[in-house]
Amino acid sequence: MNYNFSDRISGVPRSFIREILKVAADPSFISFAGGLPNKDFFPLKEIEEAAAKVLKNDGKTALQYSITEGYLPLRKYIANRYKIKKGISVSPEHILITSGSQQGLDLMGKIFINEGDNVLLEEPGYLGAIQAFSIFKAKFIAVPLVEEGMDIELMRNALLKARFKLFYAVPNFQNPSGISYSEENRHEVARLISNAGTVMIEDDPYGELRFLGTEKTSFKKMLPNQVIMLGTFSKIVAPAFRIGWIVAPDEVFEKLVIAKQAADLHTNYIGQRIIYQYLIDNDIDAHISKITEAYGKQRETMVKAIGTYFPDDINITLPEGGMFLWMTLPQGVSSITLFNKCIEKKVAFVPGSPFYTNKGDVNTLRLNFSCSDEKTIEEGIKRIAEALKSK
Amino acid sequence: MNYNFSDRISGVPRSFIREILKVAADPSFISFAGGLPNKDFFPLKEIEEAAAKVLKNDGKTALQYSITEGYLPLRKYIANRYKIKKGISVSPEHILITSGSQQGLDLMGKIFINEGDNVLLEEPGYLGAIQAFSIFKAKFIAVPLVEEGMDIELMRNALLKARFKLFYAVPNFQNPSGISYSEENRHEVARLISNAGTVMIEDDPYGELRFLGTEKTSFKKMLPNQVIMLGTFSKIVAPAFRIGWIVAPDEVFEKLVIAKQAADLHTNYIGQRIIYQYLIDNDIDAHISKITEAYGKQRETMVKAIGTYFPDDINITLPEGGMFLWMTLPQGVSSITLFNKCIEKKVAFVPGSPFYTNKGDVNTLRLNFSCSDEKTIEEGIKRIAEALKSK
Fold first, then answer.
1. Using a CB-CB distance cutoff of 8 angstroms, which residues of chain B are in contact with residue A254?
2. What CA–CA distance (Å, rounded) separates B69 from B257?
3. Is B224 an interface residue toward A (CB < 8 Å)?
4. Contact yes or no for B249 and A114 at CB 8 A
5. Predicted ipTM?
6. How confident is the model at residue B358, as a pLDDT?
7. Does residue B215 contact residue B180 with C-beta atoms inside 8 Å?
8. Torsion of Cα atoms, A209 then A211 then A212 then A215, to 10°
């Protein structure tokens, strides 16, 4: 049988990270490659109680088909939390529950991107967004991140040279770099995209995982009609439910609902019900504090271990939250070569190249600190440093 | 803010059925409009036990991210069931767990359809497929269903006149018509698409819900490399999990995995684990027998009531399984006009027009018999017959 596939699928590469995760499945491996939350913090008992309660009290409804938009009390909860935590006023009617926030990217690609449309990305950028928009044959232009956020000069130039359908950004504890936009940077970026009339996707999976510094202003607050915001319970409750959301103004929301219905009718409803029950029966802020305290210590240990074992000519970001930091090796040192040496030493990370849209071998890499305890972090960093020395 | 949406989303209509379901939410309404399984048969207690067991025994893993392909033991279970129940030999490596079988349609559209590609449909056809493929700007050609399946002459002509990327069909207890393809019709259809080299999507959500007649040969068995099969647990366990699957040969499977990863990373994993636990701890065949026995009685009641209350010049299908039957009113009688009269009488169905790709007002309609008890069915049919008489 000779399959005649669509043009759009031929351009999407298989994820390099997927392949790495397979290698790193060996339990004797130390892996800083994953992007997983730490499973030791999953509220097992509380979720078991929430599930039993939902099934006992309203099981027949909770197991039936439901509406595309999502469970209204959950959408109200999210709206209320935005108000309390970030001072953002959004209506529950503008919150669509999605099958993970990854689906938000697929839906946004579907309703906005025609073949060849320009999409502005951060460089390095989130791989899942690159994949999702590749399916719709977007043309990517990436603007480098600097310590305080987007490189404003380069972003201004990019916006002058072309029209962009979308600007995709992760302003808090970005994946892969760990960088957060400063308050000033946010205002400058907002001014640029406001002038350009470009729709911005503000993806905020890690925003609640802050262990240092202070909360910054959300783009959604600055440009409510121009910014589409993505959120998820994967990092603060558990990823296996695949429950995220997308916040969009009326006109966009309506298109998203049509696309969502064609994509999977609605997000798994029993999961929405269990998560909601968990949220109202427990102190989620206390739970998040436990997670961020641990991640903060693990990040501290990683930074210290890098200081101890690595030579001075490498550079790292110093994230104030989230799950990742970003290392830049000396000019000309290949992170893929280092990766291959590290596999022999049974330690893994993600080499930088998949996070760029047009670069092959680079001298950067991503390190995850959320999934390993402090002792393992120290040992893993030591192994990478040894691999780097063994030329 | 002036949003510049993609071309693809502008052509997809909001679902008429969604709108009907809103009307029919009033509890004094009798609704034959939905496509829901009967919630009285959801195995509440068993699912509660399965959930508790999974969370107790392997909770940390069950709440974590997982692989795109789906939970391997569940894929093995499905493969084994195909072997036992239908004599179809498929490898678990060719089964991808999807977010409901609706997602299978989205993924197939993504990897196969370029703008303007021809897709062959049944007429009337499943609305969810029309929506999913509309997103990718397919061109639809629909071939009428007759009592024994596809109209072979018209299908042959259609295949002679154009090349088709896909042929989408629901050969068992079709939605909306309730028609099942006869054994002979299947062989003729298989010969036609084999000669044409068209990839067929065999969607089988209702196949296990047979209350009359005998199991027919699956297209997957006849043309294993050419047929992509969709399945779901929505109708035999519960829809709220949104757990379906797609069976595809190697080359197609690999593309589907890439598209799935970009769409939502993976199907909700906790749901996969709970469904699997439920399946291995319970007698699913006994459970399915309970459902089909009830649906069979309800279908019987509906057919009898139609015989009692309706005039002789209407026509209905006599489904051997599934959840729907299809009524053809006398020539020139509008099912939308009838629908509007029925709303006044507090009874609902779905007028035929959304199930056609190019017809406005028609004289056909869909009746669901899975969700109402026998008394309600008799009363509802009586009301529709009265509305029909009240010219």
1. 14
2. 7
3. no
4. no
5. 0.96
6. 85
7. no
8. 30
